[in-house]
Amino acid sequence: MQQKTLRIVLTGAPGCGKGTQARLLREKADICHLSTGEMLRAEALKDTPLGKSLKKSLDKGEFATDEMIIEMVSKRIDEKDCRNGFILDGFPRTLPQAEALEKILKQKNIKLDYVIEIQVPDEIIMERILGRYSCAKCGEGYHDKNIKPKIYGVCDKCGGTEFVKRADDNRQTVKNRLVNYRQRTYPTISYFEKLGLLRCVDGTGSIEATAAKIAKIVGLESKK
Ligand code: AMP
Q1: Residue 224: which pLDDT band, with cuts at 50, 70 and 90?
Q2: CA distance 224 to 133
Q3: Is the dihedral of CA 153, 17, 111, 184 positive or negative?
Q4: Mind telling me the catalytic residues?
């Protein structure tokens, strides 16, 4: 049986749960998770002029250039693991990126199915981001208050004992990221609304509750 393709944009403020929900959806739908933040963090680790300049921007919560991101995503979509579809997490983040995405998909003769906005108020965002950390080995996400490992200091998923926090998860950078979100990313939401692609979910509940709402929108609620 041929698998149905699914191409989704997950959008929302930093810390709204895009990454967590994208990972869950990837497992349910067997499609690719493309996080531009993760791609940029990997690039920023490199000891190259680009890596160094990216690190500076990311640490301050500044956006990478539209040209660079658009090229990166366009190439990535062509890879084999995206043939069943993809979840774009953190892209598009500006209006030019949204317009470019529409153009790129048209050229590739593929269609976006849904743009899902996860809505969470700023006070909750700040608490979520400042408390979050992840396993250094497998990347499993945790939170100081809300999602602790079952055994203190040991990752539930891989048994790793080292944990890391993102360099941009500090109060000042989060404030900058929220301002950037309101000024530069928010206009993309009305753009997708006009295209009839936008669906909104309340992301203030548990991870499972939000995942169930997203699964329902994309028609995967009965799949385990
Ligand atoms: P994220 O992991 O989605 O929170 O992204 C982390 C950081 O990477 C953001 O604060 C931006 O500085 C940068 N970034 C991620 N995606 C994009 C994008 N589509 N355009 C520009 N900058 C981005």
Answers
A1: very low
A2: 27
A3: negative
A4: 18, 93, 132, 166, 177
- Ligand 1 pocket, Cβ-based, cut-off 6 angstroms: 14, 35-37, 40, 57-58, 61-64, 69, 90-91, 93, 97, 168, 177
Ligand 1 centroid to Cα of residue 58, in Å, is: 7
Tokens read off for 15: 């810390």
CA-nearest residue, atom 6 of ligand 1:
37
**Amino acid in the structure at residue 55:** K
* pLDDT value for 221: 78
Distance 195 CA to ligand 1 centre (A): 24
End-to-end CA distance of the chain, in Å?
Answer: 17
Q: Specify the 3-state DSSP secondary structure of 70.
A: helix
Type of residue at 22: A
**pLDDT tens, residue by residue, 129-157:** 999 999 999 989 999 988 999 999 999 99
The Cα–Cα gap between 98 and 121 comes to 23
Query: How much helix, strand and coil, in percent to the nearest 5, is found in the chain?
Result: 50, 15, 35
Closest ligand 1 atom to residue 94 Cα is: 20
| Residue 32 near residue 138, CB atoms below 8 Å | no
**35 with 21: CB under 8 angstroms?**
no
Spatial distance between the Cα atoms of 13 and 179, rounded to a whole number of angstroms: 10
Note the pLDDT of residue 2. Answer: 55
